[in-house]
Amino acid sequence: MAEITAAAVKELRERTDLPMMECKKALVAADGDMDKAIDILQQQVGKVIGKRADNATEEGRVFVAAKGDGSEVAAVEVLCESAPVASGEDLKNFGMALAEHLLNGPGASSAEELMGQSPDGGKTFQEIYEVMVNKIREKIVVGRIARVAGPVGVYVHHDGKTAVLFEAEGESKDGGDALKGVAMHIAAMKPSVTNIEDVDPAAVKAERDRLSEEARATGKPDNIIDKIVDGRMGVFYRDEAGVLAEQAYAKDDSKSVSQALAEAGLKAKNFTLWVLGG
After folding, report:
1. What DSSP state is assigned to residue 190?
2. pLDDT tens, residue by residue, 63-98
3. Which domains are delineated in the chain?
4. If you count Cβ atoms within 10 Å of the first and of the last residue's Cβ in the chain, which end, N or C, has fewer?
5. Distance separating alpha carbons of residues 27 and 19, to the nearest angstrom
6. Closest Cα partner for 182 from 206, 201, 204, 164?
7. How many helices and strands in the chain, by DSSP H and E?
8. How many CB atoms lie within 10 A of CB 66?
9. What is the model's pTM?
10. Where in the chain does DSSP place strands (E)?
11. 274, 268 in Cβ contact below 8 A?
């Protein structure tokens, strides 16, 4: 059996970035052959993934990359088991590389498609991922991905666990302040839909019918009833249906979100709200 020197173990560790003892075991199994030891270490990733397959991934971060002019934004959710891994440089570098490639590369319709792409023409993200999992020895999952066209407002909470991409129509008159403000509003108020027309028609009809019946019971004439119902439907859209455009703007509750956007030359189009793992 070949002698396994400390220098050989150190070299293998530098080449693989894996724990010292794992490197020593691989060199012993490979009878000192460095290339064979690397192959052995690379094959371990399947065992790591299989062993931890049922573990919960309740930590992680959402990574966002945006074009300088706000014309397009991409987001990628990466989940893991523990907070130290979520805040570690390996996960951060991997997640940001995914987001930047999704933004600037050919695009992808799923996490699987994105993982099959290469950021630099060399290793694919899947191969990079396997090296990272082999090193960290923890379950890591690439979850949701999104790429949207602007104008877009972005908000990412400081812990990376909540992220909002707010899409608008129009041309911003305020340098994007309203876009960012509404993105922050969405994170805080968590609306259900963007505009009134996005509310389930069946729910709208049921509420109008209920309000109309209540108003008729007062004995008021039909033309007054319609006005009463229209006014109360505004409350329904704002408070019960969770319509973003109708909510009181969190930064200035004297106006609605739609009014704040209109002042900036914009109209709400859509939003993506991610709460980690949700």
Report:
1. -
2. 999 998 888 999 999 999 999 999 999 999 999 999
3. 6-51 (1.10.8.10), 55-149 (3.30.479.20), 196-269 (no CATH)
4. N
5. 13
6. 164
7. 11, 8
8. 19
9. 0.82
10. 59-66, 72-80, 140-149, 152-156, 162-170, 248-249, 252-256, 266-275
11. no
